[in-house]
Amino acid sequence: MYKIVIAACFFLVSCGLASGESAEEVQAQIERHNSNLQEWYAAGQIDKVAAVFTKDAWQMPPNNPPLVGREAIRAYWSEAMSWGRWTFELSAQSVEVSGPMAVERGKYVLNFTPGDNAPEGMGAFEDRGNYLVHWRRETDGAWRIVADAPVSEVPRQQ
């Protein structure tokens, strides 16, 4: 009997009945998150940015070690905001949904304008490329980022 109960529980979880949302609804939520993230990065509202990530999230900025955990992401971007203005354009190209998990593939453009506290030698730049974001529906019903991996298309400066 216990095997039937375990199998039934596994089936319900694997079918994603907990979320009850269509792929289109999930993509719309992710696109709203992206719109908010663009605004929050530009405004330096890092607490709001960090809240979109899970507590155990990984963000993998180019040419840096991964930022592991929401607090590491918050600390990194809090410091980076003191260097100047960061603006992102995020464009979801596709979102694949499976139960409480989703994978977003998209394109980004990043512009940085240095301020007075920018590290020496850090000038203005534009980066553009592609990204994969792994999203998870949390127990509070919110979709949050588990892993964020941008991949630049801009050749490295020699």
Determine the mean pLDDT. Answer: 89
How many domains? The number is 1
Main sheet properties: 6 strands, mixed
Order of helices and strands: HHHEEHEEEE
What is the architecture at the second tier of CATH?
A: Roll
The CATH class turns out to be: Alpha Beta
Spatial arrangement of strands, main beta sheet: 2-1-6-5-4-3
Description:
By secondary structure, the protein is of the alpha+beta class. The protein has a single domain (21-152), classed as Nuclear Transport Factor 2, Chain: A. 33% of the residues lie in helices and 39% in strands. The protein has helices spanning 2-14, 23-43, 46-51, 70-81, and strands spanning 53-59, 67-68, 84-98, 101-114, 125-137, 143-152. A 6-stranded mixed sheet has the order 2-1-6-5-4-3. The radius of gyration is 18 Å and the shape is globular. It starts with a helix and ends in a 6-residue tail after the last strand. The relative contact order is 0.17.
Q: Could you write a compact summary of the structure shown?
A:
The chain has 158 residues and is α+β, with helices and mostly antiparallel strands.
Topology:
Blueprint: H1 2-14, H2 23-43, H3 46-51, E1 53-59, E2 67-68, H4 70-81, E3 84-98, E4 101-114, E5 125-137, E6 143-152
Parallel strand pairs: 1-6
Antiparallel strand pairs: 1-2, 3-4, 4-5, 5-6
Task: Give keywords.
disordered N terminus; alpha+beta; Nuclear Transport Factor 2, Chain: A; 4 helices; 158 residues; globular
